[in-house]
Design a protein that fits this description.
By secondary structure, the protein is an all-alpha fold. 71% of the residues lie in helices and 0% in strands.
Length: 297
């Protein structure tokens, strides 16, 4: 997640450097071709590139809006995960007679591991990385064969809650309440997976880039009377604005791609771990995830 800090120019440049090279090549070619065939190419009215620029602005506005909606939905999903993770541990401590019994610690640690595992899984990384110290060897053996490791962790907690009810440590009503919390967690996981697996139409981006390139060509032809040394910076500056907005929307539309603009799932999982460990009365509490310069993972 990008923070309210000064973003390095290198980060901005790296986002569009390939597109800028294409823009420069198109601008140079269009300038020389329009100058070489000045008698064959009619004069380009300035209102044509102006119209294209307006159309690109409308298309970009729509894409940015849709992309931000996806990013914001992902953030709301993880906000719900924070709330339900805290509620789950508090419910356990309220329903089980001994608020600090080993079974509560086991279930709570699995919930912490679930948060880290889900974040890793959404980003296409190893779901069990960094969770080994939170799980028993038996837990690891049971979830390793599963393709969906976070779902397997929820299943282990559900089975242990069922065993608590069978041994009369909690009654049926309390089991139902705990199961409802687990259902909400699974529901949040499904929403995050849906966002991650739903592809934003690629043709929209291709058409938008085509429109930007066409804008550069028409603007270059309309400015062919101006020297290239003055025309080229103008083309680069105007097209850079469009390209940066498009790239921003492109990154926002996929909030779990391990980019600086991602939803900060690792930092959120660490916050959940800190909260749960404090609820368990532990003293050895990890520090919050620190920003990587201008962003937080």
């Amino acid at each position: 997640m990008l923070l309210e800090k000064r973003i390095p120019l290198s980060y901005i440049y790296n986002k569009i450097k390939t597109d800028l090279l294409i823009i420069i090549l198109i601008g140079v070619c269009a300038h020389f071709l329009s100058s070489a065939f000045v008698d064959n190419i009619p004069e380009m009215p300035s209102n044509i590139p102006a119209f294209l620029g307006t159309a690109i602005t409308v298309l970009l506005s729509f894409k940015i809006s849709q992309s931000y909606d996806r990013w914001w939905e992902a953030r709301k999903v993880w906000g719900a995960i924070v709330n339900d993770s805290r509620s789950f541990v508090i419910q356990l401590q309220t329903y089980i007679p001994n608020a600090f019994s080993p079974i509560i610690t086991t279930l709570a640690y699995r919930q912490i591991a679930w948060c880290y595992s889900l974040g890793q899984s959404l980003r296409g990384l190893d779901p069990l990385e960094g969770t080994q110290h939170l799980l028993t060897e038996n837990d690891l053996n049971q979830i390793t064969p599963h393709k969906n490791k976070p779902l397997a962790l929820v299943q282990l907690n559900a089975l242990d809650i069922k065993q608590l009810q069978a041994s009369n440590e909690i009654d049926t009503f309390r089991q139902v309440q705990l199961d409802s919390t687990l259902v909400r967690l699974v529901d949040s996981m499904g929403k995050a997976e849906r966002i991650n697996s739903t592809v934003f139409p690629k043709t929209y981006r291709l058409f938008l880039h085509l429109a930007i390139y066409l804008f550069v060509i028409t603007l270059s032809i309309s400015l062919r009377e101006i020297a290239l040394i003055y025309e080229l910076p103008l083309l680069v500056i105007l097209s850079s604005i469009f390209l940066l907005l498009e790239k921003t929307a492109y990154h926002l539309q996929d909030p779990f791609r391990n980019r600086p603009s991602d939803t900060s799932v690792t930092a959120i999982a660490r916050t959940i771990e800190i909260n749960i460990r404090q609820l368990l009365g532990e003293k050895d509490i990890p520090d919050p995830i620190q920003p990587h310069g201008f962003y937080l993972l």
